[in-house]
């Protein structure tokens, strides 16, 4: 059993990574249905929250069926981060996660996200202050380091644990790498195998097949896997991994009809959540290519869905897909 504070999880839980413009309530709910053990919100700006910015406040929405759910926030100003805790608590999350890993320039340039990897003392100070401010478990998502010359993740993890962090998710790349090259899980394993560590250590980066999840569990000995890009347009990925864990074989391919059905549900949930049809339509566009990945001669349908401006256009296209491709065998 793996525990984040008092939250009990199964052995080697699968976590949905916080992804900007992806990990919203409808998508999180779908991933939860399909086997995700813990889900995280999109990362939310602490400065946006204390300014009551509409976009930031909206990201605090949580469905009860998502639990356990973590709200992830980022920032580099201690006072702002502490004020944020009080705002976040009102949404009643199960976990508050701090983003110390986002490599995007506009975040890093403010010293937040992966930018804080240049100031480990501040990273620890912020974490300690937030732990002391709330009774909710504080967790951290970070990277190996700023660059290959400054990887001190074993020491960093110890210090975060020492100030009360309840779990750490580590992306196996440096900030300089962004998302290029392969993720290196070796240093994440060093953190896990450090005898001083007793909190869960989750691996993140390149877990895009069930076999890689097994590798992360059995060869690297980590406590769980945080899944990001592999789940986009494929909320079934969590179920596929768990099936492989249990049976050692791949579960049957998801049928075209099932893909159509969940794409429809996703769209309707987005519209209901956003309360504006066109916004809901736009929010689901990034998922369509992956929902139907691998289908030959699909470009026409994909283009119709990503350019549609009404739900009816998308639903009609999905109905056509169900008929035209019903006999296609998916991989």
Short summary:
The chain is 43% helix and 13% strand. It has helices at 25-33, 46-50, 54-58, 78-89, 105-108, 120-133, 153-162, 186-192, 210-218, 237-247, 256-274, 277-283, 285-291, 299-307, 311-324, and strands spanning 2-4, 7-9, 14-16, 38-40, 44-45, 69-74, 95-100, 138-143, 168-171, 201-204, 224-227. Helix 7 links the parallel strand 8 and strand 9 (168-171).
Set down the secondary structure blueprint.
Elements: E1 2-4, E2 7-9, E3 14-16, H1 25-33, E4 38-40, E5 44-45, H2 46-50, H3 54-58, E6 69-74, H4 78-89, E7 95-100, H5 105-108, H6 120-133, E8 138-143, H7 153-162, E9 168-171, H8 186-192, E10 201-204, H9 210-218, E11 224-227, H10 237-247, H11 256-274, H12 277-283, H13 285-291, H14 299-307, H15 311-324
Helix pairs in contact: 1-11, 4-6, 7-8, 9-10, 11-12, 11-15, 13-14
Write a concise keyword list for the protein shown above.
TIM Barrel, eight-stranded parallel barrel, single chain, 43% helix, two-stranded antiparallel sheet, 15 helices
Q: Could you say which structural class the secondary elements and strand pairing correspond to?
A: alpha/beta
- The name of the CATH architecture of the largest domain is Alpha-Beta Barrel
Q: Major β-sheet, in short?
A: 8 strands, parallel, barrel
Order of helices and strands: EEEHEEHHEHEHHEHEHEHEHHHHHH
Taken as a percent bin, the fraction of beta residues is 5-15%
Calculate the mean pLDDT score and round it. 91
* CATH homologous group name of the largest domain: Aldolase class I
Helix content: 40-55%
**DSSP E strands, number:** 11
Distance from first to last alpha carbon = 33 Å
CATH class group of the largest domain: Alpha Beta
Instruction: Give the CA-based shape.
Output: globular
CATH topology descriptor of the largest domain:
TIM Barrel
Unreliable stretches? none
| Rounded Rg | 20 Å
């Amino acid at each position: 059993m793996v525990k984040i504070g008092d939250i009990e999880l199964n052995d080697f839980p699968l976590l949905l990574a916080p992804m900007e413009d992806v990990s919203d309530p409808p998508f999180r709910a779908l991933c939860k249905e399909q086997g995700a053990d813990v889900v995280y919100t999109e990362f939310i700006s602490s400065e946006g929250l204390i300014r009551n910015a509409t976009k930031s406040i909206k990201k605090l929405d949580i469905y009860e069926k998502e639990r356990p759910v973590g709200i992830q926030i980022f920032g580099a100003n201690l006072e702002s981060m502490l004020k944020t805790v009080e705002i976040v608590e009102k949404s009643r999350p199960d976990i508050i996660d701090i983003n110390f890993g986002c490599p995007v320039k506009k975040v890093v340039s403010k010293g937040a996200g992966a930018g804080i990897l240049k100031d480990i003392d501040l990273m620890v100070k912020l974490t300690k202050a937030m732990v002391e401010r709330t009774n909710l478990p504080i967790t951290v998502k970070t990277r190996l380091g700023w660059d290959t010359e400054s990887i001190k993740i074993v020491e960093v993890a110890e210090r975060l644990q020492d100030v009360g962090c309840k779990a750490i998710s580590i992306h196996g790349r440096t900030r300089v790498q962004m998302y290029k090259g392969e993720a290196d899980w070796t240093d994440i394993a060093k953190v896990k195998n450090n005898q001083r560590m007793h909190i869960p250590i989750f691996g993140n980066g390149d877990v895009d097949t069930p076999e890689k999840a097994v590798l992360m569990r059995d060869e690297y000995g980590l406590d769980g896997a945080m899944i990001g890009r592999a789940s986009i347009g494929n909320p079934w990925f969590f179920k596929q991994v768990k099936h492989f864990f249990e049976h050692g074989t791949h579960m049957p391919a998801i049928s075209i009809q099932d893909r159509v059905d969940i794409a429809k549900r996703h769209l309707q949930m987005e519209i209901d959540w956003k309360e504006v049809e066109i916004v809901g339509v736009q929010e689901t566009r990034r998922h369509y290519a992956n929902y139907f990945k691998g289908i030959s001669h699909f470009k026409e349908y994909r283009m119709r869905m990503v350019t549609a401006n009404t739900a009816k256009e998308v639903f009609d296209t999905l109905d056509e897909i169900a008929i035209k491709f019903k006999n296609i065998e998916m991989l």
